[in-house]
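Dear colleague,

As promised, here are the two records you asked about, laid out in our usual form so they can be pasted straight into your sheet.

NAME FIELD: protein one
SEQUENCE, THEN STRUCTURE:
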Amino acid sequence: MEAVLDLSAEVADPKRPRVCFDETTKQLVAEVRDPLPVTPGQVERYDYEYQRNGVANLFLHYSPDHPAGGGRHVEVTQQRTKVDFAHQMQALVEVHFPNAERIRVVLDNLNTHTPAALYEAFPPEQARRLVERLEFIHTPKHASWLNQAEIELSVLASQCLDRRIADAATLKREVGAWKERRNRAGTVIQWLFKLADARTKLKHLYPSAS
């Protein structure tokens, strides 16, 4: 916990950016009848019936070190295997932060979130080059709320995903538009929970000196 909080309190360093990474799923649901449009005094109405079209996965990363608050990215995939995770880490190194010496990645303890995943996805030489540019900092068990990417996912859920979305193509378009708006606005997370707060409010989690 303290390692994550120390990282959150650091001053931005473009050579060693901090990146918060998380993922979620979205049930794809199509209408079986067209909704009734808005009329004076009446909101848009939907039929209670719907058609399930499977589940999509969303990977999200957010960096508090990106200039002008443009540090969030969302990728829609069919699944979230170790190989899918590895390709997200490859993109961090080669696309999003190509000039970084080391990328500090905050993530939870999901069994796919390991350096070994990169060796499953890439030849050993390439996997090694990527792993050497990454430093994984895991949130403690039951403390994934320390990961700022969870805040971004919560906002994404309330502003974009809280409705029926029929297919992956529509989902990609909608989350892409959400990401662009939020990045363009320069929205940043103001992280207020500090190490001193943890030692006071969560002191029951620390071992007793006695």
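NAME FIELD: protein two
SEQUENCE, THEN STRUCTURE:
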Amino acid sequence: MRVPTAIARRANALVLLDDGLSCVEVGKVLFLDDDTVRDWRKLNLESGFSRVSRRESGGSASHLSTEQDQALVAWISQTMPRSTRHVGAYIEREFG
């Protein structure tokens, strides 16, 4: 059985946390934002791994125009930002 990559990353993060790494260290190792790692840890502690391993889509619709979205994709492809914070800062700076 093939485990989806997103679920495997979450499992890897939790194993590394269990081995004693901090959320910041796990984020650096797995190229994740440390807040994401913290959220997974909290969810795992509160509800168990079955909840962490759910792949739920959602969120709000984009407020960017098609042109802005294309510019964002190009910027991400060129700069490979390390965290969602960097992406958010770019969006705020470029598109308000």
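A couple of things worth noting about protein two: Helices lie at 5-18, 23-30, 34-47, 49-52, 66-79, 84-95. Residues 5-52 form one domain.

Best,
R.
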